[in-house]
Each structure stands twice: as C-alpha cells, then as structure tokens.
Specification:
Blueprint lengths: L1 H5 L10 H4 L1 H18 L3 E8 L2 E9 L4 H13 L5 H6 L3 H8 L2 E2 L7 E4 L1 E4 L2 E7 L2 H9 L4 E5 L7 H6 L2 E4 L7 H9 L2 E4 L5 E3 L4 E4 L2 E4 L3 E5 L4 E4 L4 E2 L5 H13 L3 E5 L3 H9 L5 E5 H4 L6 H23 L3 H39 L4 E5 L13 H11 L3 H11 L11 H6 L1 H20 L5 E6 L5 H22 L6 E6 L2 H5 L1 H4 L5 E4 L1 H9 L10 H6 L16 H15 L4 E4 L7 H9 L4 E4 L4 H14 L1
Parallel strand pairs: 6-7, 7-8, 8-9, 16-17, 16-23, 17-18, 18-19, 19-20, 20-21, 21-22, 22-23
Antiparallel strand pairs: 1-2, 3-15, 4-14, 5-9, 6-13, 10-11, 11-12, 13-14
Length: 621
C-alpha cells in the first residue's frame, strides 16, 4: 500500500484483478456495491488480498471532481438509490462554478507576481495592453490580450469585450470592471494594490518586476492571482449529466432565477443556462455600442443649454422678454431632441433583439442610471477626438467635463434624478421599449416588458417620473393603434426607499433590490475603494465576509426584509427580486428564499449556480 501511495509502484487497473484472482474480484465488487448502497454515496475503499483472501481495511466517502459530483448525483437518482433532494445537496455551488469556466492545468508551474480580488472566475492568458482601443486593434489582428487599467469605465466596454481577461489596480467586487466582466463571462482580477501602472510608458511594475505592453501574463480569476508567461488552460466540459442535474434542481427549487443581460447574445446564453427571464437589462451599456456614443455626447452637450432655456422661459414675465430668448431655446431644443431622435432607433433595435431572445419570458429594463460624465472622455486626446467629431472646440468639451465633475458621483446626478432634470431621456427610452415590444408582438411572439426606474428614494419622485413614462407610452399606443401589457417598477437601492416601501409600493408594481448600491449606501463603504481595507475587516472578524460579495444579512438584509414586508402590506401580490451581484451568491440566495422573494437575478454564467443554490435553500427551509 505504501509503495502505491508514495508513487514508487504504478498500480494495475482493477479490471485486471478479474483475470488474476477472479474469486477475490467477485467478492470485492459485491462488497463495493453493498457498501455504496448502504452509505448511499460513492466510496473510497482500501483492501488487501493476502494468500488469495480478501480483506476490506476501510471505507469512506470518496473525494470527487466537479464533473464526477454531478455524474454521481444523477446516476444515483436514476438508480433510485437517493432522492432528488439528496442529490441536490451532493454538489456544491462552487463546484459548478469550476464547470462553467476554463481553468489552468493543475500541473502548470505558476510564477505568481501579485494577488488581488477574484472578481470574475476563469482563466485568461494574453499579451498586456493598456487601452481599450489597442485591445480592439490587437484582437482584430488575431492576438489574445489582457486589458490592464487602473480602473475601468464605460468607455472601456469595447476593449473589455476584446480582451481575454481584465486586470485593474483599483476597485472591489462590485466595481465596473468586476460587474461587466462577470456579465460577459470574462476572467477578471481587480483591486491589485501592488500594481503600479504608467500609461505614458505603457508599463506596469510589481516591486522590482516590470511588465511592458506586449508581454504575456496569465490571470486566475477564481483565486485572484497574476502570473507571468503563458499557462496552459483546460476548457470546461459540459456533459449530458449537467443538464439532467439542473433539471433535478429545478424540480426542487421554489425561487425563480433570472439573468442580468444587456445584449441578445448574453440573453440567449443565459436562457441556454436556464434563466427564466431578465431581471436587469442595463441600458447605459447600449449607449457605448459602435457609433451611437456620438449622439449620446451630442445630447449631453445640448442638455444643460436646453434645461437652462426652459428655466428662462418659465421665469420671464413679459412677451417681449420671451421673444428675446425664443431663438436660443429653439436651437437648444433642436440639438437636444435631435440627439435623442438619433438614439431612439438604436435603442429600439436593441430591445427588439433582446425581446426576441427572451420571447415568452419577462424582461426588466432599467432606465439610464449612471451620471452623464461617464459618457464623456476624460483623457485629453479623446476629448480632442470628440471635439473634431462634433465640430466644436476642445475647450468646450473640457469645460463640459469639468462642469459635470462630481465629488461623489455615486450619490450625485444619476438615476431617476436625471429624468427629473431631463424627462425627455426616459421618455425616449420608454418609447423605444414599447415600440420594440409591439414590433416583436406583431411577429407573433409573447413579450413581457417591465420598466424599472432606478434610484428612487421618495414616492413623489417615483410618481413624477412614472407619470412622464406612462404619458409617453400612451402616445405610442395611440400612434401605433395597438397595445401591450407592461409593468412599471423601481429599483430599491436607496435606504429611504426600503424604509418607506409601503409608500413606494403605491406606485411601483414590482421591486428589485439593487444590493450593490444598497450595501454601499447603508454601510457607508465606497464599493470602488473598500477593497483596500475590507480584507482586514474580514481577517479581524469585524465582518464574516466582504459585504459586496456576500449580503450583509443582519444590516443590509434587514432593510431588504423590511422593504419586502412593507411593500406587500400595500400591494399584496408585489413581485420582488434582487438584481445586485449578490443574486448569484449562494448564502445570499438562501436569504432571498427565506424572506419570500419571487426571484434572484445574476450574470449569465452564474445562472446554473443560482439554480442549485435556490434548490438547496428550498431543502433547508
């Protein structure tokens, strides 16, 4: 035995025992079957045959790979050895995670140079690049790249899509890089504080080591490790047993599972993974596709002038004064509304694609959420490009960027606050959603649109925005001489909304808890900066886990539970879900099941994990 354990001898295959010692082999296989049936699990047995006599030394539950765990669970249900509920408990959600993403060959030698947060699982190998433009250009030449940034912004979407993986020096588990990477199924390591990035020289350093643009690195998004060189990867194998196991989970779970998806491709992938609808479609990501960024920027430049002209007209007291500013108002209005008209067909086509991919299933569309400055270039060279494209001076662009700067943009002019100032933006989006829904319905498909207003904190605020949206939808119905059922709800991410959920529910037909922002606002942690110190908080036992990775059930969770109960006091059949990143984390899913939510929503690649976690939560309840 020791020779085999030590690796001195290579053992024979078990089937050869049948030829050498058939009687002992027959006894052994009979005992193997008996012990497996007794323990109702795969066994790891030790035995000895001495002078042709069989001795069983010990037996214990056998260790297994993720693939084997799924196969054993499915086979034992098929043999009626275990129940479906027991099968569901035999596979850990983390094991499924490994099944869904590529991973490094365990035999590969690792030269780990730094460690950060495991922001999005998987393995990625590529050449270092420092800008989104270069990432796209190199990808188009057939190169594999890793996009390295201090932090990412919506401007980097194209480069993130082009990259094999993303590496950032700053940011936490719910930073822009982390959230987008998980949605795309891209490997991401975030918040690597040891990383010193120099965009001028296109290099980064870790201690004494320097890595230049074009050098090869490997990222382990499951461990948060960065390695030099090209490590061999192993692609996941999705067997037929995986589908059978997921069906078992669906038979057991009570909680619905949706996905966070912004494109028809993501929607289809999530549906293939078993998603029962879209719980969060972020419209801002659509604004960066191809050439449409230019009308978005044109709209932003005109928006303030337009709003200012409206204020002036409302303030004037005489006809003479009014006429004096009417020309300025006409110009501003034409530019602002002209930009929105250019965006309308883009948005409508996006929604047509998503509604087709999700035909028959609900789709929750979140209206524009981020502050406007995110759509403007921050770097001087990109500002010059924008000025040239729009036929204005670079100084005008810089002035607008400076004007839109906010000290705390996450608490600033964003979400429904944008619609309070510029109602035409949400009107355009509502029109695009409903026109797309009517078009897909006319083609014979079932469409279930749900319009979600983000960041509302007061019922008066929600009502004001909702009334504008409904007015625009009624105009579309009149123009098209057709109607479709739809819902208007809100994202609960401001603590005040959770505390006054009974009032909010008078206007909202559904709630979706945006736990990324709700955690940030409740705990007073910046989700982009907390990675620098939260590790110490967990290490010293202040919090059991990073609250941006696992829902803080005693604090933030209390607001979620309170909001759910209060909302249903007003509207008994209020549909409640969660669309923050916690929607794909097993312990958070267990909490959502306990408080009586209707569904969780997570990135496409975490849908199977959520289906398993929801089934396990049902068994525990």
């Amino acid at each position: 035995g020791e020779d085999v354990v030590a690796g001195i001898r290579t053992p024979m295959e078990l089937k050869k025992l049948n030829r050498k010692l058939p009687k002992a082999y027959k006894q052994l296989t009979a005992l193997m079957s008996r012990l497996e049936k007794h323990y109702k699990d795969m066994q790891d047995m030790e035995f000895t045959i001495q002078n042709k006599k069989l001795y069983i030394l010990q037996t214990r539950t056998g260790k297994r790979t993720a693939e084997a765990a799924v196969k054993i669970a499915v086979d034992m249900v098929g043999e009626k050895l275990i129940s479906k509920k027991m099968a569901v408990t035999r596979v850990e959600p983390e094991q499924l995670d490994r099944l869904l993403h590529p991973h490094f060959d365990p035999k590969a030698k690792r030269n780990v140079i730094a460690k950060g947060l495991p922001a999005s699982p998987g393995a990625a190998v590529g050449q270092v690049v420092f800008t989104a433009d270069i990432a796209e250009a190199w990808r188009d030449k057939g190169k594999k790249v890793i996009l390295v940034r201090k932090e990412t912004s919506p401007e980097d979407i194209g480069g993130m899509d082009a990259a094999e993986g993303i590496l950032t020096a700053f940011g936490g588990m719910t930073s822009h890089a982390a959230v987008v990477a998980r949605g795309m199924g891209k490997c991401c390591v975030a918040g690597v504080s040891a990383l010193n990035i120099n965009y001028t020289t296109n290099k980064f350093t870790v201690g004494k080591l320097t890595v230049k643009q074009g050098d090869w690195i490997s990222l382990d998004g499951s461990k948060g490790e960065i390695m030099t060189g090209q490590l061999a990867t192993v692609e996941p194998v999705m067997s037929g047993d995986f589908g059978k196991f997921m069906k078992i989970c669906d038979d057991v779970r009570k909680l619905g599972v949706r996905t966070n998806a912004d494109t028809p491709g993501d929607a289809k992938r999530a549906r293939d993974f078993g998603a029962e609808g879209i719980g969060l479609c972020r419209t801002e990501h659509m604004f960066f596709e191809g050439e449409r960024i230019w009308p978005v920027r044109q709209m932003i430049l005109a928006a303030d002038d337009y709003a200012l002209m409206i204020e002036k007209i409302e303030a004037v007291e005489t006809v003479k004064e009014k006429k004096a500013i009417e020309k300025e108002y006409a110009v501003a209005k034409k530019q602002f509304e002209g930009a929105l008209k250019k965006l309308l067909p883009y948005q409508r086509n996006d929604f047509v694609g998503i509604f087709k991919a999700m035909a028959g299933l609900p789709v929750t569309v979140r209206l524009l959420d981020p502050p406007l400055h995110e759509f403007l270039p921050q770097e001087k060279g990109n500002q010059a490009e924008m000025a040239q494209q729009l036929g204005i001076k670079p100084a005008v662009v810089k002035a607008k960027v400076d004007q839109l700067h906010e000290f705390n943009p996450m608490l600033g002019h964003r979400g429904c606050r944008l619609s309070i100032t510029y109602p035409a933006i949400y009107r355009m989006q509502a029109r695009a959603i409903i026109e797309a829904a009517l078009k897909v319905k006319k083609a014979g498909k079932v469409v279930l649109p749900e319009i979600m207003i983000p960041l509302a904190g007061a019922v008066t605020e929600l009502k004001l925005v909702k009334d504008e949206i409904i007015d625009e939808i009624n105009k579309v119905f009149k123009e098209k001489k057709a109607k479709i059922k739809y819902m208007v709800g809100t994202m609960i991410e401001v603590p005040r909304a959770a505390l006054t959920a009974d009032e909010i529910a008078t206007e909202a037909e559904f709630f979706s808890f945006g736990t990324n922002d709700l955690t940030q606002m409740t705990m007073g942690f910046s989700r982009d900066d907390a990675g620098k110190f939260l590790g110490e908080y967990v290490k010293k036992g202040i919090y059991a886990a990073d609250p941006f990775q696992q829902l803080d059930q005693t604090g933030v969770g209390k607001l979620v539970e309170m909001g759910t109960k209060l909302g249903r006091q007003t509207r008994k059949k209020l549909k409640v879900g969660i669309c923050g990143e916690h929607g794909g984390e097993p312990s958070s899913i267990d909490f959502c099941h306990r408080v009586g939510m209707n569904y969780v929503s997570c990135s496409p690649f975490r849908v199977p994990i959520a289906r398993l976690a929801a089934a396990q939560a049902a068994i525990r309840k």
